[in-house]
Each structure stands twice: as structure tokens, then as C-alpha cells.
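Appendix B. Raw example, untouched.
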Amino acid sequence: MAKTIVTTIIKGIQEKKGENIISIDLRKIQDAVCDYFIVCDAPSTTQVKAIADNVMRLTEEEMGEKPWHHEGTQRAEWVLLDYVDTVVHIFLTPQRKFYQLEELWSDGVIEEHNA
């Protein structure tokens, strides 16, 4: 189940030209908050919002899944979409460089998904 939603989320990000797309497989990390993180960035808040909207639309249309929780859509500097087993982080480019989320979870298996 989780791998399928990961594929759908990545497709949604790619359709709206998200940049530096990675997935982090956290399943082998004890006490990880979820199975997968998907992380990407975009150069404008407009694009961050468009990516988030497209991911939510696509996961609902193709999988019947809505995020359990989402936040950050108003400011669109760091949008979080929580699908329970998979959490999506869509950053404005400077925020991604500042928070370096992938460094915090570097014990996970990181895979790049740039088209």
C-alpha cells in the first residue's frame, strides 16, 4: 500500500515541476514516525501550493486517499501532507536548505526521483 501511494505522490510532484524530489524509506529505523518521507522543493510559494494541491487531488482521484492531516498551505513555505504511513514535505527552496530535513533522517534509504 505505502509504495503505491509513494509512486502516486511522486507523480503529483513531477506533474507540477517539483525540484530535488527524494523519498526516504524509514521502515528499518526503530521508532520512525512513518514508513516514508517524500521531500521536494519549489522556487515560489505559488508553485509550492500548486504541488500540494496536485498531490492531494491525484491521491484522492487515483487511490481514494486524503491526507489525515495537512498544514502550511496558507504561507506555503513548508507544506506537510500526512498520509499516516507516508508524509510529504514540500518546501520553498530556501526553507529546505535551512531545515535540511533529509540530514535528520539520513539513516533512512534515500532515493532520488528527478525526471
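End of appendix B.
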